[in-house]
């Protein structure tokens, strides 16, 4: 029967009109077996499954005759899926998917059936239906967003979340999370329905919803990178016939064997570049902007930002947390999400801080995570009266002489982060004495991590509120104008914050450009002499720690030179000295571009560094003088047509001038600037940042060792592709014994005493024990 149906299927696909009678005969056979199956499902249903598979393969060729076949199959699966055999259920569903792909079935009908069949206790079938639902919804919304279909499917998904079957509800929630991760359903309604699942009565759904809000952004980034790599690899394999690994391996081998560039290799390289370009164009939809590309290019907001009622959600989840008896890990997830919502939206859930306080003990599991959640939930709108008890509890429980150095470092770092979040804590009653006690640990001799944590706390207090410190502890270069703002006080900035720094820098650049144009009128000989002497003096000043007198002498010598740089002023000095009116500011005269904002961000970072570094003026002045002197020297040599050798960075004179420009580091916009900054839109705090420096180094060492061991797993594969023959150890193993019998190593073994043999045997046994091997084999050999 199987052979006959397969042969008939092949002939029908070749000539459908000639075999219309045979198809109708098989369709009547299906109707008869269907009636029998509805009365009493047979135990052996393989023949019925083959018949359904055959009809689903060829039914699209006879649309008039097979009008009710899809509906009958769907109703049979919906009514009798519990009584069916597992193989037959899978066969019927695959037949329905085939007909849906060929347009013979409405997508919403099959998706509703999938949600109904999620109650079935068949793991393989549930996985198959899950993949079909996700892929079908993605395909429907690939070219254009189908709002009508999406709304109907969403209503079905939301209804299934309230289903009494926990398996069906879990699968429905996973579908929503997966579609959000793939940027198909990124609307507000989807996020809020997942938020309702956080407070449901099903623990598995609660864990899935909590993990969605805490880590969906990282999963989206990882998925996008993975999809892009897959597309590029497929295009490369289609164009070159080789995988990416083989191409890279061949390129490495070619680079080792040859160094000359030939036309054939250049053509091969161009072919690979064209394949990459073609892959990127295919990923973007072949030049047409599809709906999927639009969604990927649209601005992405954190899922926490899309909550309709953050205050109500935080209160509900905190209420569930207080009465929860779930595993401690699940309660940690709840605590993390509550704290992140409170910190991101600046909510007031005051009982949360006293609730977290009971978990703040050094012996508590995951105590660094709990401290990180407390810091996440702290912001400037929280009254200091509610956080002061928690701060004092951390100081008393963690920072004392009975605690270990790692515990003390965690406590000091936590206090520092809390004060940084809520500076008003330093003005509380008794905080002066507490601060004095904590900063005394900067002289702690037992552990360096405690010293670093105490010094960081002292530096923060010098910047935020130096009045809380004693006069001798404030430091010479503390911020004397700093004061703690009152509760609810905000500083309203006029215009773009930091635009005056960009204005200072652009004015200085114009002045240097004007002075540089006048510099060409001087004679070449004078420039060479001055540049030679200036370069030597600049190199001496760079290594001299006490360069005040040398700097004054340099400025005196350069008074006659109009192009010499003026005495350097730091950004901090310029900001204090010059006050620009609002009408004369650069942001009031022109529109700032993205490039300007990147420069302003970089200048503000430099201003913060200058506030902390008292030698910033001296360093900047030294750098400007040396750069100017070197530029004068190189210009003079270029005019004479001389080639300078032995000086780093002189391959291209324009490149050297650009590198030595004193404003290049300020006006340049690095592409890695945003990647270097720790930007986290959801306000998450890494618990590892609260640990001591020594503890973090140990963890980094363990991670490096793990990566080393993982890299050794594929060492045997590298051996096959290694060039250059075998090493000495491999040659020694493969040598004939007669060739090594007279060697010194073998002779020493033969002339060993009994004591030396016992010592060698014990050493060998210890080696085997360390590598977790059995010692019985070696002991058996010694008995014989």
TrEMBL record:
Keywords per UniProt: Nucleus, Protein transport, Ribosome biogenesis, Transport
InterPro entries: ARM-type_fold, Sda1, SDA1_C, SDA1_N
Pfam families (UniProt xref): SDA1_C, SDA1_HEAT
Chief subcellular location: nucleus
Domain SDA1 C-terminal residue range list: 724-768
Compositionally biased spans, kind Basic and acidic residues: 242-251
Similarity comment: Belongs to the SDA1 family.
Protein name in UniProt: Protein SDA1
């Amino acid at each position: 029967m199987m052979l006959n149906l397969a042969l008939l299927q092949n002939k029908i696909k070749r000539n459908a009109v000639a075999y219309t009678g045979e198809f109708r005969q098989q369709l009547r056979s299906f109707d008869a077996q269907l009636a029998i199956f509805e009365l009493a499902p047979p135990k052996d249903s393989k023949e019925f499954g083959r018949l359904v598979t055959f009809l689903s393969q060829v039914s699209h060729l006879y649309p008039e005759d097979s009008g009710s076949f899809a509906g009958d199959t769907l109703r049979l699966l919906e009514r009798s899926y519990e009584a069916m055999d597992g193989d037959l259920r899978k066969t019927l569903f695959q037949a329905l998917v085939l007909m849906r792909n060929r347009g013979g079935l409405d997508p919403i009908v099959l998706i509703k059936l999938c949600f109904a069949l999620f109650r079935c206790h068949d793991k393989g079938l549930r996985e198959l239906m899950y993949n079909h639902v996700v892929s079908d919804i993605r395909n429907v919304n690939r070219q254009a967003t189908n709002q009508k279909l999406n709304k109907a499917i969403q209503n079905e998904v939301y209804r299934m979340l309230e289903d009494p079957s926990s398996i069906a509800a879990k699968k429905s929630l996973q579908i929503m999370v997966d579609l959000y991760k793939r940027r198909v359903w990124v609307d507000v309604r989807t996020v809020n329905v997942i938020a309702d699942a956080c407070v449901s009565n099903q623990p598995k759904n609660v864990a899935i919803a909590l993990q969605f809000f805490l880590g969906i952004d990282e999963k989206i980034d990882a998925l996008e990178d993975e999809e892009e790599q897959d597309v590029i690899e497929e295009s490369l394999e289609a164009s070159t016939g080789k995988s990416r690994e083989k191409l890279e391996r061949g390129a490495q081998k070619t680079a080792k064997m040859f160094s000359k560039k030939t036309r054939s290799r250049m053509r091969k390289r161009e072919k690979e570049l064209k394949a990459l370009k073609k892959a990127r164009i295919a990923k973007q939809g072949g030049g047409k902007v599809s709906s999927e590309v639009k969604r990927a290019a649209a601005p992405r907001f954190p899922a926490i930002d899309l909550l309709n009622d953050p205050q109500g959600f935080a209160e509900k989840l905190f209420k569930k947390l207080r009465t929860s008896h779930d595993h401690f890990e699940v309660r940690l997830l709840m605590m993390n999400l509550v704290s992140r919502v409170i910190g991101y939206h600046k909510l007031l859930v005051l009982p949360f801080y006293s609730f977290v306080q009971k978990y703040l003990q050094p012996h508590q599991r995951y105590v660094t995570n709990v401290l990180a959640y407390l810091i996440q939930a702290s912001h400037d709108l929280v009254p200091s009266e509610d956080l002061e008890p928690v701060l004092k509890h951390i100081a008393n429980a963690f920072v004392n002489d009975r605690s270990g150095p790692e515990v003390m470092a965690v406590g000091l770092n936590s206090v520092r982060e809390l004060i940084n979040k809520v500076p008003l804590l330093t003005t509380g009653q008794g905080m002066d004495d507490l601060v004095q006690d904590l900063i005394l640990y900067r002289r702690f001799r037992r552990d360096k991590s405690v010293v670093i944590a105490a010094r960081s706390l002292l530096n923060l207090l010098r910047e935020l509120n130096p009045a809380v410190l004693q006069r001798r502890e404030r430091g010479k270069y503390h911020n004397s104008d700093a004061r703690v703002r009152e509760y609810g006080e905000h500083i309203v900035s006029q215009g773009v914050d930091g635009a005056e720094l960009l204005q200072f820098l652009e004015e200085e650049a114009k002045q240097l450009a004007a002075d540089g144009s006048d510099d060409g009128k001087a004679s070449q000989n004078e420039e060479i002499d001055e540049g030679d002497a200036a370069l030597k003096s600049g190199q001496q000043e760079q290594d001299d720690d006490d360069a005040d007198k040398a700097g004054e002498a340099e400025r005196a010598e350069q008074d006659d030179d109009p192009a010499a740089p003026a005495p350097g002023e730091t950004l901090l000095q310029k900001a204090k000295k010059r006050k620009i009116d609002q009408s004369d500011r650069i942001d009031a005269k022109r529109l700032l571009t993205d490039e300007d904002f990147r420069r302003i961000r970089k200048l503000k970072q430099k201003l913060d560094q200058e506030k902390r570094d008292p030698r910033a003026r001296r360093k900047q002045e030294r750098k400007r003088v040396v750069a100017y002197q070197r530029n004068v020297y190189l210009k003079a040599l270029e005019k004479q047509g001389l080639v300078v050798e032995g000086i780093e960075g002189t391959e291209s004179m324009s490149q050297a001038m650009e590198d030595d420009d004193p404003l290049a580091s300020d006006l340049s916009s690095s592409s890695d600037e945003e990647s270097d900054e720790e930007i986290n839109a959801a306000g998450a705090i890494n618990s590892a940042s609260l640990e001591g420096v020594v503890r973090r180094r140990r963890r980094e060492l363990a991670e490096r060792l793990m990566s080393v061991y993982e890299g050794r797993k594929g060492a045997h594969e590298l051996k096959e592709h290694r060039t250059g023959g075998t090493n000495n150890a491999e040659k020694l193993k493969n040598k004939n014994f007669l060739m090594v019998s007279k060697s010194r190593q073998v002779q020493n073994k033969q002339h060993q005493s009994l004591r030396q043999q016992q010592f060698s045997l014990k050493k060998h046994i210890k080696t085997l024990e360390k590598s977790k091997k059995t010692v019985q084999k070696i002991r058996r050999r010694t008995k014989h």
